[in-house]
Design goal:
about 220 residues, mainly beta, Metallo-beta-lactamase, Chain A, 8-stranded mixed sheet, 14 strands, about 10% helix, globular
């Protein structure tokens, strides 16, 4: 499979048979132009959405997707397993910014999690649900989500193979959140790939957790 970082918290996952999954497609220009990434193009077989805020759900993309995964639960579609776990966008049980879904996709022997706009520390029960992850896409910017220290703690406990940071400050994002360097300086085994895309296979997963920083494609 190939994982492409589109920008903000949006990723495209292309399976070997050509099917495409999009995670949290943002609406370009939303929040008064604060989301400055270019428009996401194309039609996706599956759209996985953590919550309905416009920087994570663009109806132009979700309305044309073959299937939208935006509800808590577990489902297998055409050999791909989707598990959506309840969480919150804040530390107050959702009273500030609402609910959030942690999404786990299992395909081609890879178990990948997208944490959406997770806004709180993980409980012991929630850690149990994240056991055996090969890849974790994790927000690190703080303010609206967990910050770099909480993200680092989650990674230490989950111990995935690959860590891909997301939801961080760039020159195309006007939100008051931290840059990716605030996170990477806390971590070992960091690679700035210089690319927006990474190929992932079971055989290529590192034996120790590696952080790979992808450049936004759009």
């Amino acid at each position: 499979m190939k994982l492409k970082y589109l920008g903000h918290s949006a990723f495209e996952l292309r399976l070997e048979d050509g099917r495409k999954i999009v995670f949290d497609p943002y609406e370009p220009g939303s929040y008064g132009g604060s989301v400055g990434f270019g428009p996401i193009e194309g039609v996706y077989d599956f759209a996985v959405v953590s919550h309905d805020h416009p920087d994570h759900r663009w109806e132009k993309i979700t309305s044309t997707a073959g299937r939208v995964i935006d509800k808590e639960g577990e489902i297998v579609l055409e050999g791909v397993k989707f598990t959506s776990l309840p969480s919150y966008h804040d530390e107050s049980g959702g009273s500030e910014r609402g609910r959030n879904l942690i999404s786990i996709v299992e395909a081609e022997g890879i178990k990948l999690a997208h944490l959406g706009d997770l806004g709180h520390t993980i409980s012991l029960d929630e850690y149990a649900n994240l056991k055996g992850l090969d890849v974790i896409l994790i927000p690190i910017g703080g303010f609206f989500t967990i910050d770099v220290r909480v993200a680092a703690s989650i990674i230490k406990n989950v111990q995935p193979g690959l860590v891909i940071p997301m939801h961080f400050k760039t020159d195309k994002l006007g939100f008051p959140i931290a840059p990716v360097e605030d996170f990477t300086k806390l971590m070992d085994n960091v690679e700035f790939s210089g690319s927006s895309e990474i190929e992932i296979t079971k055989d290529s997963l590192p034996s120790e957790t590696r952080v790979v920083v992808l450049d936004p494609a759009l």
